Amino acid sequence: MIATTPCPAPGAAASNPLLHASHLATERQVMGARFRFRSNSRALLDQVDAAYGGLPAHRFPWRGPRIEVGMWLGAGAPARAGEPPAVRTRLDAEPMYGVLDEHNHVVMSPRRRRARLMASAAMLERPYHLRYELLEFAVFVLAARCQGLVPLHAACLGRAGRGILVLGASGAGKSTLVLHGLLQGLELLAEDAVFVHPGCMLATGVANFLHVQADALDGVDAATRAWISRAPVIRRRSGVRKFEVALAAAPRPVRLAPAPLQLVGTVLLSGRASGRSAATLARADAAGAAAALALDQAHAMSQPGWRDFQRRVMQAGIHVLHRGHHPASSVDVLRQLLD
């Protein structure tokens, strides 16, 4: 998740004449909200298509908000060697910011249901950072804040409208479990970021890419191995390199959750193997469940709906999953919880 630190308001954008130009627009139903993206650049709107094109249009039972996102391409500075500067954010007051540098930033107002994204031509050469740290960052923040959703660093798989929340520290194997869940016919809600309405425990997210390390290729069929191997490799801010695998290019159809899923269970992936050929599942005690729920959720714990969400998850119980010799056995465990 992106670290949250105070940062100054970007000053260069205010005088940019491109802010007043609006030639292109597209709309997307994402995470319960209706987003309208306006831009002076077809290339920037192509990033919207890359992020949300072909995804199920998630709607909650109630009418969702309409949100405006302006995306403006400026000349900016020439591309620097290496990756862009680390993103600085402010999310504790409006306007909210996500800033890479003076030429690349997003300013958001959940109260007004809108955002303004500025990007340089050089940033188009770094689509991963542009999409993940500016575009998706704005969409996630606005969808969550405008609808009272709790944002979680988690994955979610399900079927028939029911979902299992999957927690685990970085490197615990969430993405590998998601990959094998998809290969075995489960529905994917989200791989890395899940958003839950605490009042009804309906979960939504975006299922566009998988981010998996090379060891995820172990135990998959030849077609899946070729699909993943062809994907571009991105470098996380942590330094970890992963394949960014587009689900639209899967060698066989994969199932994406067609609507928000009703959460019926929570699983914590243990860093310890079961010691058996099959995965094992054990219910966590109260202290262990509370610790598991708080793991890597610092931002979620600061949100207004956290206490209600925490109470309901704790009441339902949290299970600890110890992996077996093959990820398929972990998928079998999830199937049992979904029955």
Care to describe what's here?
By secondary structure, the chain is an alpha+beta fold. It folds into 2 domains: 136 residues, no CATH class; 144 residues, Phosphoenolpyruvate Carboxykinase, domain 3, CATH 3.90.228.20. It contains 8 helices and 19 strands. The longest helix has 21 residues. The two termini are 31 Å apart. The N terminus is likely disordered.
Topology pattern, helix = H, strand = E? EEHEEEEEHEEEHEEEEHEEEEHHHEH
CATH architecture of the largest domain: Alpha-Beta Complex
Arithmetic mean pLDDT: 89
CATH fold descriptor of the largest domain: Phosphoenolpyruvate Carboxykinase, domain 3
Instruction: Please identify the oligomeric state.
Output: single chain
Task: State the secondary-structure class.
Answer: alpha+beta
Count of separate DSSP helical elements: 8
Beta percentage is: 25-35%
Helix content: 25-40%
Number of domains in the coordinates? 2
How many DSSP E strands?
19
Alpha-carbon distance between the two ends? 31 Å
Uncertain stretches:
1-21
The best one-word shape is globular
Largest sheet report: 9 strands, mixed
* CATH C-level label of the largest domain: Alpha Beta
Gyration radius, to the nearest Å?
20 Å
In short:
This protein has 339 residues and is an alpha+beta fold. It has helices at 42-52, 127-147, 174-183, 222-229, 286-294, 298-301, 306-316, 327-338, and strands at residues 24-30, 33-39, 66-74, 88-90, 96-101, 104-109, 114-120, 150-153, 155-159, 162-167, 187-190, 193-197, 202-205, 209-212, 233-235, 241-246, 261-269, 280-283, 318-322. Strands 8, 9, 10, 11, 12, 13, 17, 18 and 19 form a nine-stranded mixed sheet that branches. It has a seven-stranded mixed sheet with strand order 1-2-3-7-6-5-4, with helices on one face.
